[in-house]
Write a structure and sequence with these properties.
The protein is α/β, with parallel strands linked by helices and 311 residues long. It has 14 helices and 9 strands. It has a 7-stranded parallel beta sheet with strand order 3-2-1-4-5-6-9, sandwiched between helices. A two-stranded antiparallel sheet has the order 7-8. Helix 1 packs parallel to helix 2 and helix 9 packs across helix 11.
Length: 311
């Protein structure tokens, strides 16, 4: 707790709420950002509500209304942090504007989609993360310490949702790899983190529709998804990892970190990695997945090769 009480972090809404709660539980100072400062009937959650929850956990929450699609607002955010704390130890790039667009275009061929299906996902979901990483890197390099964590998705490898979604996530993973290599000599780490399906407020609001559909032939079970805090616990584990720099530039799953560091989800469940044979088999044949031991894992190289062959 004393170590975390000196740490300053930035995260955005959605899954960022759970990350803020996990960091708050460790006593960190967390700048929580988003476009909705006050609660409203039309938008679930708000920065002020999340700030109160973080404070109740023992952290220090600083809500900042910020549209990550506007460069000037991002500049003001980092200028504020530099003036108030002079440092940043953790940047979680999670801002995303494409949820509604993806839902509207899931079954629409790319040639019939409006250009906002690309712009909404790539602008606030990739470009804005590059800009935020630039600002954060400069502050981290000064102290020769820090972590940039880009929230990505298996959609970088597998065909989920829409083409812009896959392109955006694949681009984010490549950005993590190259930023990690450039930052390594400064003792600053950069990783991509893949959660599984996360039970955000939006996902729970469209649960019935999701469970009527399939992804790559596999039925979706929202109840098996991760809570919003699981990714936060994964990031706390990364911040505590003495071998963090060895992971820099890599793509990591939340479940693999759970297995490595022994933490569970906020509801007590253990999640199995995408690399676990039981996960892949269980998505199509739950009865068979249930009897496969979780320690049987497939090498990443095999998964990448299989994905490219399959698609």
């Amino acid at each position: 707790k004393q170590w975390y009480q000196r740490r300053v972090a930035i995260t955005a809404g959605g899954i960022g709420r759970g990350i803020a709660l996990a960091l708050g539980s460790e006593g960190a100072t967390v700048y929580i950002t988003g476009r909705t400062l006050d609660p409203s009937s039309s938008v679930p959650g708000s920065l002020k509500v999340t700030a109160d929850e973080v404070t109740a956990r023992g952290g220090v929450a600083i809500p900042v209304q910020c549209d990550h699609g506007e460069d000037q607002e991002v500049h003001k955010l980092f200028d504020k942090i530099q003036k108030e704390h002079g440092r940043i130890d953790l940047l979680v790039n999670n801002a995303f504007k494409g949820v509604t667009t993806i839902g509207a275009n899931r079954n629409t061929p790319f040639w019939d989609q409006q250009m906002d299906s690309w712009d909404n996902v790539i602008h606030v979901g990739l470009r804005c993360h590059f800009l935020a990483s630039q600002y954060a890197a400069k502050l981290m390099i000064e102290r020769q310490n820090g972590l940039i964590c880009n929230i990505s998705s298996p959609g970088a490898l597998f065909n989920f949702f829409t083409i812009p979604y896959g392109v955006g996530k694949a681009g984010l993973d490549k950005m993590s790899e190259m930023c990690g290599k450039e930052l390594k000599k400064h003792n600053v780490a950069c990783v991509s983190l893949w959660p599984a399906l996360v039970k955000t407020e939006h996902i729970m609001s469209v649960k019935d529709d999701l469970e009527k559909s399939k992804i790559n032939g596999a039925k979706i079970n929202v109840d098996n998804g991760e809570t919003v805090e699981y990714a936060g616990r994964a990031i706390v584990a990364l911040m505590n990892d003495p071998n963090l720099m060895q992971k820099s530039g890599k793509t990591i799953t939340t479940a693999d970190l759970g297995s490595e560091f022994g933490f569970k989800d906020a509801d007590g469940r253990t999640h199995h990695s995408l690399r676990c044979l039981k996960t892949g088999i269980g998505m199509r044949y739950p009865w068979l997945g249930a009897v496969i031991p979780s320690f049987i894992k497939i090498p990443w190289s095999w998964i990448v090769a299989a994905a490219h062959h399959y698609y």
